[in-house]
Structures are given as structure tokens and as C-alpha cells.
Design a protein that fits this description.
By secondary structure, the chain is of the alpha+beta class. It has 2 domains: about 170 residues, Phosphoenolpyruvate Carboxykinase, domain 1; about 190 residues, Rossmann fold (3-Layer(aba) Sandwich). The chain has 11 helices and 16 strands. The strands form 3 sheets. A 6-stranded mixed beta sheet has the order 1-2-3-6-5-4, with helices on both faces. Strands 7-8-14-11-10 form a 5-stranded mixed beta barrel, surrounded by 5 helices.
Length: about 375
Amino acid sequence: MSEFARTTAQDAERRELCELLRADFERTRSAAGGTDHALSIAGSRIRLRFANKVLADSLLPALVHPAEPAPKDAGLVIHLWDRASGPSSLVLDALMRSLSWCWQEHLGSRGEVHGYDKGPIRASFHPGPDALSLLDYERGEAFYWVNDAARLPWHECASPLRTLLAWWAAGAGMQMVHAAAIGNADGAALIVGKGGSGKSTSALAALCAGMWYLGDDYCLVSDSPNPFVHSVYGTAKLRDENDLSKLAALSGSRAETSGDAEKLVFELTPRFGEQIAASLPLRALCVPKIFPQDETEVVPVGRGAALAALAPSTLLQLSGSGGDSLRAMSALVRAVPCFELRLGADRGGIAAAIARAIAAGSATRQ
């Protein structure tokens, strides 16, 4: 088969997949009764078309910045449904029969579907929650299908649609990063590091001290020469009760989670909604590290160390991320001053230390 014929066949297969998904969504929505919601993320409007209330109730609490009324000219329309709510939803079986790939044999380590990891139509499948994500760049349309909305794992509800939003953002010149972000009137600081490095506790300590919040685990960044950070989720996560004991103001925001939850999840919008910022200019990048001292301070750190704290966990956790993502993050650390956030025993000084890093970065822009 020639390369042209192979490409044509792949395009036809991808379109067939989209048509199968669209038909099944409409059939399920017609039977279950649907609802629409609109979001504004990074200044763009996203329309969520839910086939049923169960899935909407599971995912919407984490998504902030509503845009009302629901726009007809949304930059992205996402269709969301599950097999359990459909009258006879057999999408997964139909796809396995009619398409040239099957899930287990063609999945990458981050859920990428080989053959659908590039081009105008991208797909991923995560066997744990049985979640299929597919984005059609050309039509500005996406599909999110799960086996049972009532059985979604805690992490899918705490940061929903992460794969789809990361792909959509990349097409709009932005990068999803595994990082926290906190700010004030001067701008924001990105707090980067692998899991357990102190991102969430630092961001939440600053939130409780009155600073503006853009995320504790994932957010979007636009690239240089004037980078911005954009909020996506109004949730936060902590590892255990010991962390919570140091952040008493969060206790009333704890969300109910299933028994499989590995972390404590918090819904911040009801109590801290006025402190959740949609977008802020990015002024600094901070790498947290615990130090045997009382006070928390910030000191300059090399850009290589900052990139090493940011890139690996982002590349590991986001399906389909690769060379383009690494280049975007490399440009980011070159665009703003980088600091080591030395976390002392007195967590009350975290907000002031982050504010100093933001002020230093803001001064370089003047």
C-alpha cells in the first residue's frame, strides 16, 4: 500500500470513529436527558455537552470560571457520556470490531492510542477508569466516554478532562504543566517539582494567607515573550491529614471521595472563589525544597535545575506530550527568573517568600 493510500485509509478510519462516537452520544443523551455547561479557560470558551446528570455532577465541581450563557461559538465543544447511562451503548465493542486497532495491543504507557497520537484527530484510552478521550482539531470537537460515571476514580474527578484540555491547549499555543501557581497584583509564580516536593502545601499555604490561586497540580501556561499562567481547576489535593492540620482554613472545603482516594481532595470555589484567578502574568518559577531551618526563603536557582523540576513529571503524566512540550517548557524557564523556594519549619512565611519572588520577577519586566 502506498503512503498516500495508507494515509487516506487512516483518515477514513478516524472519521468513522468520530461518527460512531457522535451517534452513540446523541442516542445516550436522548434517552438520559442532557445538560449543557460553558467554561472560560485561558480566555477561550468551552462548551460541555453532558448526556446525563451523573457525569456532570462528578466533573463540574473541579472546573472553574463558568461562562454564561452557553456560547454557540465555543472554541471547543466536548461531548461527555458513559455506557451505563445509555439504552444499549456498545461503543467500545463496536470500535474493537470495526477499527484496525484494539486497545490493549496499541496503547502507549500514558494511554496514547498508536496511530492516533499525531495528526488532526488524537485519542487516548485509560483502562483503569475505562476512559476514552478523542479530540478532532479540525472541527473543534471532542469526545469523553467512560464505562460508568458513578465509578470514576477520585483523580478523574479532581482534575477532569486533563488529556483533552492539554491537547486543545497545545493547539492554541499553550502548554499544560504539572505545577502549582499562586499570585498577587504583581503577577504569579509557578511552583514546580515532582509529587511530594511541596507544590500543593506551598500553594495552599499561600492561598490561606490571602494570595490568589491558579492551581496546585495542573495549570496552563502561554509562552514567551510575555508568558501567562491560566487556571483550569478549582480543586486541591493533599497527601494526608498531617498536611491538613497545618492548613486549618481548608477543613471546611474537603470533598467527599471514593474509597480508592490516595489523597485528600478539596473543592475551593465555594469558600475561596474570590481568590481563584483566571489568568495572571507569569513572573517567577519556584522549585520548593525542604530545608532544616525556621524561616522560608527564596534564592536564585539555575534554569537547568528549574527545567529538571518541571519537565519530567509533566512529560510522564500527560498523554501525548513529547518534544514540543519539552521545547515549550524550555522556553518558559528562559523567560522568567527561577528560584529555589527553601521551605522552613514556619510555613507561615511561604506566602511572603513567594511574593518576594514575584516582585523580583516583576522588577525585571520594568
